Amino acid sequence: MRSLVEIIAAKRDGATNSPQDITRFVKGLTEGEVADYQMAAWLMAVYFRGLDDNETTALTHAMLHSGRVLDLSSVPGIKVDKHSTGGVGDKVSIALAPLVAACGVPVPMVSGRGLGHTGGTLDKLEAIPGFRTELPARDFARIVRDVGCCMIGQTAEIAPADKRIYALRDVTATVECIPLIVASILSKKLAEGIDALVLDVKVGRGAFMKDEARARALAQALVSVGTRAGKKVVGLLTDMESPLGAAVGNAIETREALDILAEAAPADVTECTLRLGEEMLVAGGIAAPGREARDKLGAAIANGTAARVAEKMIEAQGGDPRVVGDRSRLAIATEEIVIESKHGGFVARCDALAVGLASVALGAGRSRADQAVDHGVGIRLEKKPGDAVARGEPLARVFVRHRSKAAADVDRVREAFSVQDTPPPPRPLVLDRIVAANST
Amino acid sequence: MRSLVEIIAAKRDGATNSPQDITRFVKGLTEGEVADYQMAAWLMAVYFRGLDDNETTALTHAMLHSGRVLDLSSVPGIKVDKHSTGGVGDKVSIALAPLVAACGVPVPMVSGRGLGHTGGTLDKLEAIPGFRTELPARDFARIVRDVGCCMIGQTAEIAPADKRIYALRDVTATVECIPLIVASILSKKLAEGIDALVLDVKVGRGAFMKDEARARALAQALVSVGTRAGKKVVGLLTDMESPLGAAVGNAIETREALDILAEAAPADVTECTLRLGEEMLVAGGIAAPGREARDKLGAAIANGTAARVAEKMIEAQGGDPRVVGDRSRLAIATEEIVIESKHGGFVARCDALAVGLASVALGAGRSRADQAVDHGVGIRLEKKPGDAVARGEPLARVFVRHRSKAAADVDRVREAFSVQDTPPPPRPLVLDRIVAANST
Known about the structure:
Two copies of one chain form a homodimer. The first copy, chain A, is an alpha/beta fold and 440 residues long. Helix content of chain A is 43%, strand content 16%. Chain A has helices at 4-12, 19-31, 36-49, 53-64, 92-102, 121-125, 137-147, 160-171, 178-190, 212-228, 251-260, 267-283, 291-302, 305-316, 352-362, 407-416, and strands at residues 80-84, 107-111, 149-153, 196-203, 232-239, 247-249, 335-340, 345-350, 378-381, 388-389, 394-400, 417-420, 430-435. In chain A, helix 10 (212-228) links the parallel strand 4 and strand 5. In chain A, helix 1 (4-12) packs parallel to helix 3 (36-49) and helix 4 (53-64) crosses helix 10.
C-alpha cells in the first residue's frame, strides 16, 4: 500500500491518484489517519496539477459517503434538483421548486446561505415569518412526498468531509480550483437522493467565475462528473454581469420570487426560471423539450397550482403561507433612498458585484459564516441594462434601517450604474447549454 | 496587512513574498497564529513556484531567529564550520574538525544523526566510549575556546521553527525543494555563531542529490544565501557514486576518520578531508589557498598536533581519548563475512546507495528518527572502483552480530559491486568549486 506521502508526491509530480488512494485520503481525514496539513498539501498539489474526471468522481464519492445519503425511496418519480453557482439577485429556486413540483416532478432541495457578495436561498426563505430550514431527514422526505418539494439547509450528516475540506480550502488559498469545486457541489447534491440535476452556472461580474471560459470549464466538469456518478445532469451557462431581476436582498427577493408565480416579475428572472424549469421537466421525464415543457410550466403558473404548492411547502415548513398571495407580508425596511440618474440616455451597465457588495454592507449578507443577516434591507433596481432613462428618473431604490448610515452603500449602488447615449448591445440570458458528451 | 491566505495565494500565483510576510508566516507558526495546514499549503506552493534568494534569505533568518544563536564571542578568531549534505562513508568531520583546529582555526560544529541510507556524525562519535554529544551551550563555547573544536547535536534551542517545518515537510512531500533545503541547512549552521562555512555538496547514487545539475543548483543557492546572510561561504561538489573511504558503519568509520590523522586512511577520504581543510584554513584567514594551506594541514597531521586536538576534544566531551592512538578500542562486531569476487577484472562500480541501505539494514542506521543504532556493525570495502581484483579475492568484509540473519544484507553489498574486464574511466573526487558571484 502506498504511504500518504507517496499519494501526495504522486499528485505533486503530475501523476494520477487511484480511486482507492483518493478514498483513503478522504476517509483518513474524517477518521484521523490523515492530518489537516497533509490534506492541505494535497489540495495545493491538486490546485497545480488538477484532477481528471475519474479522480474528481472518486473524490465526490468519497466526500458523499463520508456522511448520509438521504433516503427518498418513499417518494415516487424521478427526483430532480437545481443548483446555481451563485450570483446577485438569484432568487430563482424559491419559485422554481414549487413550480416544477406543481408540474409533477419531485424537487428535494438542499440550499446554502449567502457568503461574500452572493445571496443565499436559506436567508431569503427565512424572511418568511416562521419558516424553518432545519428539518430532520424524515420530515424532509415526507414533505417532498406530500407537497412535491422541500427546501432545507445542509445538515451535519450531509457530506461532513466536504465541510471539513471546504473549511481547509478557505484558509489555504485552494478555493478557486475547478475539480475541488465540482466535488464539493456534487457531493452535497448527490446526498439529497436525487436522480437528475440541472445546473445554473453563472458567468460575469457578479458570479464566482468572471470569465466565460472558466465558467464553461466548470459546467463541463460538473456535467461530466455528475453523469459518471450515474445522474442525469445538464447545465446552463447564464449571464451574471448585472443582477438577476430587480430585487437584491432577502425579503425583497422572496417577494420577487413569489411574483414569478403571479406573472408579475421582471422578464429576465422569469425567463431564467422557465428555462431551468424546462430542463427539470425534461430531466424528470414528464415533458418533451421546448413547447410541451414550456406549456406545462405556463399552465401551472396561470392556473395557480404552482402558487398552491408554494403555500403548502411554506406551511409544511412552519412558515406563513399567506405571503404567497400577499407579498407585502414580507417586511421590507421602511427608510427608502431613491437614486436618480444624473443623465438621460440608456443604462449600459449595472455591476452585479458592486450591487452585491452594497447589499452585504447594508446588512443583507455576511462576510463571515457566523454572522446574522437583516432580512428587511435591500435594493430594487428600477432600470436594467438596455433600459432608457430620463435625467432625474430613479435608477434604483435602497431600503435601509438608518438613512444616515447608508451613504457609502448608496454611493456604491449609484456607481454600479453607467448611463450612455446609445443603447448597449443586448446580452443573451442563456449563453450556452452544456450536456454530457454522449447525451443531447 | 495581507492576510495569511493572501500570502499563500501570492506564492501560489508565482508572486514574491516580502521578507515581512515570510517572517510573519514563520513566527506565526511557532506562536500559533499560523496553522500547520497553512504552512503545509505554503510549502507545497513553494515547491511549485520556488523562492528567490531574497525570499530564501528571509526564510533562513526567520527560522534562525525562532531560537537561540550560540554566543561564541568569547572565542577569538574567525570561526569556521563545514557542512556535508550527506553520503555513505562520509566520516570526514571527525578528522577535519581537530585537524583545522590544530592549525589555529576554531571549529564549532553542530552535527546530525543518520537518517535513511546516509550515516550521521553523532552516531559515529557515540561509538567512542563515554562520548557525549549533548552539551549545554556554555560548555560548547568553552570547549571551542579551550580545545579549538567541539562537536555536538542540535539542541531544542537551535532553530525550533526549522524542526517544526522539517517535520511538516517530511509528511507532506515537500522535502525535495532546494530553497527549503537551503533555509533548513543554513538556519541551523548560522545558529552556531560561525563566521564562515565550507559546504561539501555530495553528488551521485549515495547522495541526496543524484544528478550534478540539481547538486550544483543546491550548492549555488547555499553559497548565495549564506553570503547574503553575511557569512563567508564556499562549496565543493564532491563525488558520492561509491562510498567515501573503505569503512561504512559507526565504530568502523570513526576508526577510519582517526586513521586520517595517522596517515593511514584510504586516499579518497584523506584527499576529501584535506581539500575541505584547505578551504577552511583559507576561510579562517590563516593560510593562502593551495600550497600554504596544504603544508599547514600536512604538518599538523605529521607532527601529531591534529591527533592531540582530537584527544583533547574527546576527553572534554567525556570520551576515552585513548581511541585516537589505539583505534581497536572502538569495538567492531566480531562475526566477519567475506564477500569474494566471482570474476577477475576491475571494479567498475560500488553503488553507494546499496551499501548505505545494507549498512542501515545491518543495524548501523535507522529508518525512523527514534530508532537506536548498533555502533559495532559495518562494512569494509576491500576494493574500490578502478581497483584490479582477482577471482576469489575479497571485495568487502561485513561485520555482523549474527551471521545467520545477515544473508540478505550481505547479498546487497555483493550486488553493489560490478566487475568488468577493463578499468573504468577515473572519476574526479571534487567535481567543482562554487563561490559567491562576486568572490574568488
